[in-house]
Every structure is written in structure tokens, then in C-alpha cells.
Amino acid sequence: GGCRAGRAAADVSAEAARLEFIRGIDEPTIPEVRLSRSRTGAAGAALFVFESPSIFEASGDLGDITGLFMEDDEGTLSTTDVKAKFVNGKPQAIEARYMMKSGFEWDRFMRFMDRYAEEKGLGFEKGNK
């Protein structure tokens, strides 16, 4: 129970699920997320593709990007497998790959994605394409 504050207060709460390239700086660009999973379900991978993310505007130096951090109220998931894609010498997109080695890690990641989707008002398809 307990009374809940209005929606605006919830937006700035520490519980919000968010993606960051630099710790403490929220990346507002919504990525395309492609999920793949092994047949046994023990391992999986998520590929995030951010088209023209705002980090490019904020930071001319891609060296500032040390990884992709997925923050929510359970803690932080992170990957350092982050690459920029260039077109005509200009950064166009960022791809980040997050690997999961167990069903436990997969479930934890999906909890993050559910929170992130709710936060951003998205629906992720969980089907295997």
C-alpha cells in the first residue's frame, strides 16, 4: 500500500530503468533490441542498436564511451562490447552486445527489459524471429 506520488515524481526516481553509455548520463535514444537464445535456453545474447544516439551530440569523443550500462532497482548490468558504426567518417550508430551465460542471467536481463519497456512505453516482442 502507501500513497504513490504523481507520474512526474516517478520519472526522476532512482528506480527508473535506464541505459547509459557514460555512468550517470541517461541515454534517451530508444535502441532496437534483437534477442537470440540457445536452444537449451542456458545462454543468450542481446544486440542493442542505437541510431544517432544523443551521446554523439553530447560527446564528440567516442573514447568517453566505456560500455553500455543497464541500470534498474536491482542494480546494474553492463557490457564493454560496444562499437560505433561510421558512415562517411561520421558516427551513425552504436551497437552494444550483451551476452548471457545462464538462464538466471537471461531472466535478470528480461526483468530489466520489462522495466525499461514500461518506463519508455514500449513493447518488446519476445518471439524468436
TrEMBL record:
Bilayer topology: Peripheral membrane protein
Keyword GTP-binding listed: no
Highest taxon of source: Eukaryota
Localization of this protein: Membrane
GO biological process: photosynthesis
Keywords linked to the UniProt accession: Membrane, Photosynthesis, Photosystem II
Leader sequence segment: none
Pfam families (alphabetical): Psb28 (PF03912)
InterPro entries according to UniProt: Psb28_c1_sf (IPR038676), PSII_Psb28_class-1 (IPR005610)
Entry-linked Gene3D superfamilies: Photosystem II Psb28
Entry GO CC: chloroplast thylakoid membrane; photosystem II oxygen evolving complex
Family: Belongs to the Psb28 family.
Protein name per Swiss-Prot or TrEMBL: Photosystem II reaction center Psb28 protein
